[in-house]
Design a protein that fits this description.
Helix content of chain A: 40-55%
Shape of chain A: globular
Mean pLDDT of chain A: 82
Low-confidence stretches of chain A: 1-5, 118-132
Radius of gyration of chain A: 21 Å
Keywords (chains A, B): DNA-binding, Transcription, Transcription regulation
Number of helices of chain A: 6
Number of strands of chain A: 3
Oligomer: homodimer
CATH architecture of one domain in chain A: Orthogonal Bundle
Strand content of chain A: 5-15%
Largest sheet of chain A: 3 strands, antiparallel
Protein name (chains A, B): Helix-turn-helix domain-containing protein
InterPro entries (chains A, B): HTH_HxlR, WH-like_DNA-bd_sf, WH_DNA-bd_sf
Structural class of chain A: mainly alpha
CATH topology of one domain in chain A: Arc Repressor Mutant, subunit A
Pfam family, one (chains A, B): HxlR
Distance between the termini of chain A: 53 Å
Chain lengths: 132, 132
Amino acid sequence: MADPTKRLPKLPVERALKVIAGRWKPVILYYVFDGPKRLSELKRMMPDITQKVLIQQLREMEEHGLVGRRVFAEVPARVEYTATELGLALEPVLLALCRWGQRHAEEQNELDELADCIVHPRASQARANTAA
Amino acid sequence: MADPTKRLPKLPVERALKVIAGRWKPVILYYVFDGPKRLSELKRMMPDITQKVLIQQLREMEEHGLVGRRVFAEVPARVEYTATELGLALEPVLLALCRWGQRHAEEQNELDELADCIVHPRASQARANTAA
DNA sequence: CGGAATCCCCCGTGATACTG
DNA sequence: CAGTATCACGGGGGATTCCG
């Protein structure tokens, strides 16, 4: 990374999606938005993620200017990750995505329940809409 | 597809991201938001996308309830894709992503220009990693 | 915390099929 | 024939696992 060959997309939407694309990035951001967090904290908050992957995702977000990294020269070395201004600007967007995701889940689950009553799980088959 | 094993994520954010994830989905949505479009139209608007992939992405978005599909039994077979209510609800979110992407592009490019004046293009290197 | 091997999914190419 | 949809195949990148 930091590789000139791996440039971000030109279209703003795709660029934004690319930046927040990553198995754990939204979750990490969720915690970091709340305030500075050190690595061990994040690790404890998300037990299902490997330390390597966690650091990996943090590194990428750092390169993309979403989070900042501060190293404290204390006895037990200490590293804190904080959200940058640019990163914080992403919070409302992620919240919007979250809300839409909830609505989507509700509506889709409703359809799934209805689908249980009918035969086929796929509605795309018996569909001959001959509208004019 | 329509495979019960491939369920969407539980977390709303990830669910939303998963649904709009796809090389061409944002672009397709952009056009479909403007009004009903038939396949050949979309193909003409986006020359760089293959017919197969186009149909693929449309199918997925249909299964996810983002777009609707209408088949007209005319002389040359005709199919129109339209945005659903749920799909339209996504428009402001995509716009927000777009705006943030623009800002991100501006700020990042500024940093890149500054980096030209300094020595190292990578800031992640000379960082005292004293963690074990 | 880095590197290598691995798996799997996304996407692209080209050819083919179906329907009036 | 024109428009729509599908299939067989292959490459590439992200994510996971194991090892040092």
